[in-house]
Amino acid sequence: MTQGLHTDDPAALTRHIESRFHARHREQLPALAALAEKVETVHFGDDHVPEGLADLLQRMIGALEVHMKKEELILFPAIRKGGGPGIGTPIAVMRADHDDHAQDVAEIRRLTGGLGLPEGACRSWTALYVGLGEFISDLEEHIRLENNVLFPPFETEAAHV
C-alpha cells in the first residue's frame, strides 16, 4: 500500500496521509453510515441486523473529522517544519485518538459478527460490509503509518529536548 512512498520524508508522508487516507475516510464514512441506517431500518427485527452500527458510524464521522483536523492544522504543519519542542504532546493526543478508533473498529466487528453476512443478505447489506471492510483496512493502515513510521522519529527527538 505504501509502494513508491518515501517513508523517510516526513513532509511527503503527511501529504500522502492527507490525500490517501483523510480524503478517503471523509468519502467513506457518510456513505457507510447511510447504508447502515438503511440496513437497520429495512431489516429491523432480524437477528443478524447490526443494531447500533449507524449511530456508531455517525459518532466516528465526528471523531475522525476532529482528529484529522488536529493533524492537518496543528501536527502535520509542525512535522513539515521539522518538529521541535512540544511536538510530543500532540503526538500523544493522536496516539490516544488512534486507540479510541481501534476500540470503534472492534465495536464494528462485534456488531457485524466480524463482517459476516447472513445467508441471503441483500445488496445494501453486502455493500455495507464490503465498504466497512475497505474502511477498516484503510483506517488501520493510516494508523499504522502514523504510529510506526511518522511519529517515532519525532518522539525520539522530543524525548531528547
From TrEMBL:
Highest taxon of the lineage: Bacteria
GO cellular component, one term: cytoplasm
InterPro entries with a match to the protein in the record: Hemerythrin-like, RIC_family
Keyword field contains Cytoplasm: yes
Gene3D superfamilies with a match to the protein in the record: nmb1532 protein domain like
Key words, A-Z: Cytoplasm, Iron, Metal-binding
Domain Hemerythrin-like: start-end pairs: 20-152
Molecular function as annotated in GO: metal ion binding
Pfam families according to UniProt: Hemerythrin
Subcellular location as annotated: Cytoplasm
Main location: cytoplasm
UniProt-recorded name of the protein: Hemerythrin-like domain-containing protein
